[in-house]
Amino acid sequence: MNEGFPEERSAWLRCYRCWSERLEAQVHYDAILKVDPETGEAADRMEEIQEAVVQCLDCMHDQPHLTVEDSRVVPVEDRWERMVAGKPFVASCTVTVDQDQVETCSGPEAADSLTFGSLGESGTREFFTHVRFHKHDEERIVVHLLVELYARTEEEAIDVLEAAARGTLEITSLAEESRPPAHAADEAH
Ligand SMILES: [Zn+2]
Questions:
Q1: pTM as predicted
Q2: pLDDT at 75 over 70
């Protein structure tokens, strides 16, 4: 049903790039504390997870196919299988967006703004994205990008890019790369 990948934890609880199982979760909490009017004690701690990023301790890459729910790492349903079983694809592409989708196109924030404006959350969290340059065309901005993403087939890579694009996508080239070598357990030292 899913190309030989068992629905067990080891299928997804690993780095999507090097398949290492040595992971670390960086969790940021938002704490809301009730203040006791008698003592000033801030107790009744109500914690909510604000942001969780799982990282591989071997290759140090973020793991956007994993997230944290109720103190447990869980797979992101529409992402993990494609990323763990997939291969890296590198696309050279342009995304044409309305200029008000890009907060700023100059200064230190420009690359992040152009990435988010053109490819949304997938562009900033999942893909490795390099903005080569951008051009203004009246009310629109044409963003020229190099994108690395994981997919099982070329068609799937195109689908993922199309789903992420927040404007008109044009793919100039798309090439399959080889997966980084799998992490060998006995190399852990
Ligand atoms: Zn890794």
A1: 0.82
A2: yes
